[in-house]
Amino acid sequence: MILQALKEYYDRKIEDPESDIAPEGFEKKELQFLIVINEKGEFISIEDTREKVGSKLVAKTFLLPRSVGRSGSRSYETTFLLWDHIGYLLGQPISDRKSIKQHQTWLKALNNLPLELAEDSGVRAVIRFYEQDEVAKAIASSEASECFKAPQCNMSFRLVGDVPVPCRERVQAFVINSLRTPDVEEVTEAGESDKLGICLVTGEWGEIARTHGRTPINKDTKCLVGFQKNSGYDSYGKEQGYNAPVVKSTEFSYVTALNTLLKSKTQRILVGDASTVFWSQSGSSFESDFSLFFSEPERDNPDSGNQKVKELFESVNSGTYMEDDGDDQFYVLGLSPNSARIAIRFWQVGTISQLALRIKQYFDDFAIVKPPKEPEFYSIRRILVNISTQDKSENILPNLTGDMMRSILSGTPYPATLLQAALRRIRSDTKERVKPVRAALIKAYLNRFNRFHPSDTFKEVSELLDVNQPSVGYQLGRLFATLEKIQEEASPGINATIKERFYGAACATPVTVFPNLLRLKVHHIAKLDHKGRVVEFERLLGEIMGNLKDFPSHLDIHQQGLFAIGYYHQRQAFFQTKNRIENDLNQ
């Protein structure tokens, strides 16, 4: 199903004249350096195609003959057609023994080029370049030093005033002609009839791909589909790709479609080690706006994401998103690198209207009262970073991004690891234990969990303070926030409050902490000069204590989550009351 959907996406894009997807046999690839020569093969210069974009050097992209996979100890024996890196073209750096072997492979491939290619003036000039030993001039040139700094950068040749040699019309015609599927009779005569078969993706007859193309993902390249030799995957005498027949044209289509999506800025989300790509059966606004629902807003236009989310909310009422067909199929694929090949974290298929409804539910679940400076909607990255160790993105737990996205898109409960990570960060963070984003996450988790596992004792957690919430954990959280507030007003400017010392024990084992805190409260409240404030606190404490029968010996993980929300809601209520009093005085 995944390969079929990717093939459909490729077919749609290749028919679009405005699409830049590569045709069969080619790929869009960056060439960082071009060795400029004349038709006699004489060296002129080395051209650096890179330009500075922001803080990065970005090279020009060209339509090149497709690269082939190479791995293992004999990978040096494989080279690409008329382009590769400096090890192949110039045999550099000489300190790397493999460079010499790579260069020999390159020279051998040039000598074995078919006649129709060797007659091309550009290709002929490249061959002369090596026959005349112009390599030494290229290595000695001043521009070569930049190449040596980036030994894996792609290179090729260019005649003066011409396009790169692999982009010449005759070379590209050769690539297209070489894609012709061999006749059955030709193959049978050669004794290789097992290379032909019916494609399991499209049902077409054709030549089966022995190995599948690689996909760049997170600084590495892996295969989405691959069978390792002599590792238990061989069946009925068939090895590698012949076990699951996919014809070469289909293999090219799905690999190119996936690589194009992973390079896209609008159809890919990257959080932690997980990459999520998405596309619709036909072109849609939902396809181009999908990433805005989950990504951080752009710095130069911070409201763009919020506007798209609001349009999504409106679409739920109309059944369509913008001008889209609500019944159009939409695909979401979550990937992450693995040791040997790409791991599929999740695969979600649904109509646009179904996914729009589930995404709206995700935003509804995360809605909570928050300070004015907080963003209206949280991105997945912001959520996960705030529950990671030291609030760093590199510490986001593996699998958590994919598990969370799968829950959002399928409308199922969030993974338990999400709640555990949030509570762990609240206990370990001494400065801002219950941040708004953490409280919103816990609220979303608990409400969604109890929606799927209803309980007579659970009352849905609201956005605002709920004084009638029956949860013991919630009321204890309110009590702890009130005791902390009394201490703050009794000792203004105090360095450390009871939050820094007792929060962890109060939410896990309340009976060991609260009796002592209530005794301290008597001492703190006696320091307050404003008698009206004393009455307010006593009334509030009486209201909360009226909802409690006793202090439990321990709270389970869900009650600890409710403790955090009760604490957060009560703290927000104090701030709102203070702001209201200040506004009344100013009027």
From TrEMBL:
Stored NCBIfam families: cas_Csd1
- Give the protein name, as stated in the record: Type I-C CRISPR-associated protein Cas8c/Csd1
Which organism's genome codes for this protein? Answer: Ferroacidibacillus organovorans
Q: What is the lineage of its organism?
A: Bacteria, Bacillati, Bacillota, Bacilli, Bacillales
